[in-house]
């Protein structure tokens, strides 16, 4: 029954390089291929239904990323439909739509490849933001940041490798992932120091710039990212260090968090505050939640995220250039409001 | 340094005078050497010279298709920028003109073929070819597709590799995935001479724009300067002086004129016209030295600075010394207003702030005759410095006043994505 959820997880597991919005798009395309929908209306309904199912599923760690992926996909379909010549009748419109459908089914893998290529693009955009002999602070397991730093340490088209050191803030709960990232960087000859997340304020004085990744770019130009990003951003702000976010533009979407505890996405149930005492050992989980809800809390709290508001972000390093937070905001408006 | 060679010192005027009589390549080489020797300096002069030389290339070089012309301009552009990478205006003009050529070329193509080549986005549907065979006004034409262009890069992700913006037919061009570089499908079809004259017109418009900037900016003067205000200016450029003079014609206010101690001696002559126009309308000018600045800051209402260049993120390249004033103003919560033409706004976003500091001739401070100093002490003198965006409150350009957040929309209105991406600065600054 939850085929789309299984597909989504399979895609993410099969390809560790795939981002969550991209996996959503691929899963939707797969669902499109498996269905018998032929008309525009049926297809839209199918996409709508499937993305809702995926978003609401308790197994999904980050429903915002799913939202963004599916919204982007829907927007693409709508846009393609609008561009069809309006003179044709309804029947031939459906036929033309079939062509679009075929194109999507055929090229699903290509999209994933392109999404990965955009990482290369980000790496080349970000390369020049690294000052000479600088120290860069990062954290989490962002693939974009790893790529960016890795490429910066290489010679590209005759431009010399950038000289820099990296401080990697490591969180205890995701040690393995961070250590893998550190190992890859060290292999490339980059000097990396490791500090616990608690030491960020202490070492900030040594840092020239901060570069982090993001899971989702929100509508106001903030980011939702690994727990700890917000904290680093705040500390960077206090010490006036530039805080860059390296992220692909397909992570952009309409999520509009109003606070750390309200992301405006009902399916998102992360709850890190489990108040306990010896007299009531069950904490606050017990009160009348369904099994699904409990499962969602569990899954989402296992991969916790936080929201970093735009005023803490200096700039985005995107595959289409270095963009300000306001530029990202405008892009969201252009995408979904026109 | 300032060896007066009478009438032979090369300057912008002389360069422009001889432009028509020289072969194009010779002019390019001359300009490169003038830029290198700083005999043409300042963003206005550099922008004007760049526009003129590129005009010559468009008008006099032999080119048979658009790609050839674009390539030529890019090549020359790189040379000019490499000659003096500190002058961001040079690169801006090169990019403006590249965008202009692309616009004119795509317009021609749309006129020639009746099929809609560009997929019409909802806000700008088909009328782009039906209603505009006459001269379009440039900035609006670009602006209208601004929102389209902003989202296009995102949708490229899911676009069909086999279908170009054209209508569904199988023009198979594999390999070209991103729509980033506008494909020039059949450049031969475009009418070269028509294109040439249109591009020349466009460049002339840009030149006019550069010339008009001072006048246009000063029209906003009475919005920012009010009666009784205390305005602080630092080594006011011609634009800032005009701005003040314009405001003085309507209001009475006080100007603190800050000058660097080294140039204090000739400050009276330099700013004579400013003094005259201010005093004649009843406003006051008080000259103060840079050193005693902070003491006056509590009286100051606004600080007005002229920009040498404005970066995409809102950072401003200013005369050395101005950044300290801006910092002092920030400390006292006084507003800082930066004046500069749109042509000074650079779309280049990969420049490091440190690279914007220009070091120059320290002879004002240490005379060459002072032998023991010269041989034992290293004297560095910053000519320009970088003012971070958070020290600026408002930017006033010929288009009006802008907040830092809106600068990027001006950039998308004036430059094309592919030209911003075009690596102009190369290794010049890194």
UniProtKB/TrEMBL annotation, chain A:
Query: Looking at the record's lineage, which domain of life comes first?
Result: Eukaryota
Give the SUPFAM superfamilies listed for this entry. Answer: NagB/RpiA/CoA transferase-like
UniProt keyword terms in alphabetical order = Cytoplasm, Initiation factor, Protein biosynthesis
Segments crossing the lipid bilayer? none
**Cellular location(s):** Cytoplasm, Cytosol
CC terms in the record's Gene Ontology section: cytosol; eukaryotic translation initiation factor 2B complex
Query: What family does the database annotate?
Result: Belongs to the eIF-2B alpha/beta/delta subunits family.
UniProt protein name: Translation initiation factor eIF2B subunit alpha
Organism of origin is Xylaria bambusicola
Taxonomic lineage:
Eukaryota, Fungi, Dikarya, Ascomycota, Pezizomycotina
UniProtKB/TrEMBL annotation, chain B:
Q: Which GO terms describe its molecular function?
A: guanyl-nucleotide exchange factor activity; translation initiation factor activity
Instruction: Recite the UniProt keywords alphabetically.
Output: Cytoplasm, Initiation factor, Protein biosynthesis
Where in the cell is the protein located? Cytoplasm, Cytosol
Cross-referenced Pfam families: IF-2B (PF01008)
Q: Name the GO cellular-component terms.
A: cytosol; eukaryotic translation initiation factor 2B complex
- The UniProt annotation puts the region (Disordered) at 107-141
SUPFAM superfamilies to which the protein is assigned, alphabetical:
NagB/RpiA/CoA transferase-like
What InterPro entries does this protein map onto? eIF2B_beta_subunit, IF-2B-related, IF_2B-like_C, NagB/RpiA_transferase-like
Entry keyword annotation includes Ribosomal protein: no
Q: What is its main location?
A: cytoplasm
Q: Which family does it belong to?
A: Belongs to the eIF-2B alpha/beta/delta subunits family.
Q: Which PANTHER family match?
A: TRANSLATION INITIATION FACTOR EIF-2B SUBUNIT BETA (PTHR45859:SF1)
Quaternary structure, per UniProt, is: Component of the translation initiation factor 2B (eIF2B) complex which is a heterodecamer of two sets of five different subunits: alpha, beta, gamma, delta and epsilon. Subunits alpha, beta and delta comprise a regulatory subcomplex and subunits epsilon and gamma comprise a catalytic subcomplex. Within the complex, the hexameric regulatory complex resides at the center, with the two heterodimeric catalytic subcomplexes bound on opposite sides.
**Protein name, UniProt field:** Translation initiation factor eIF2B subunit beta
Q: Which source organism?
A: Xylaria bambusicola
Taxonomy of the source species: Eukaryota, Fungi, Dikarya, Ascomycota, Pezizomycotina
